[in-house]
Design goal:
The protein is mainly β. The chain is 0% helix and 50% strand. Strands 2, 4, 5, 6, 9, 10 and 11 form a 7-stranded mixed sheet that branches. A 4-stranded antiparallel sheet has the order 1-3-8-7, with no helix packed on it.
């Protein structure tokens, strides 16, 4: 069982940066693929980024590539999402999730952290 707690959200102006963190508890964190997702009001949940267990490469939604950067620190059981040049359309609840090895879906989800970008 993995528990995930996101932090770092808040209210910022357009053009600002935020770094979200996701702290994981439970065994074998370093074996999980970690993902970031977001959900805006009235919208479906959207993929943001995924970070394989080795952290050597991060995969991004095409629409966000270049502004967002995902990373992880397996020694700290933490995954990060650096968000730059934020836009009002980035306003959403951001979730981290964990996918176990050989799993086809994300098995564990955090409660989310709100990011609001004002124009």
């Amino acid at each position: 069982q993995v528990q995930l707690v996101e932090s770092g959200g808040g209210l910022v102006q357009a053009g600002a940066s935020l770094r979200l963190s996701c702290a994981a508890s439970g065994p074998n964190f370093s074996s999980y693929t970690m993902g970031w997702f977001r959900q805006a009001p009235g919208q479906l949940r959207e993929f943001v980024a995924s970070i394989p267990n080795t952290g050597t490469r991060t995969y991004y939604s095409d629409s966000l590539k270049g502004r967002f950067a995902g990373s992880r620190d397996n020694a700290k059981n933490t995954v990060y999402l650096q968000m730059n040049s934020l836009e009002p359309d980035d306003t959403a609840v951001y979730y981290c999730a964990a996918r176990a090895p050989h799993s086809a879906r994300y098995d564990y989800w955090g409660q989310g952290t709100q990011v609001t970008v004002s124009s």
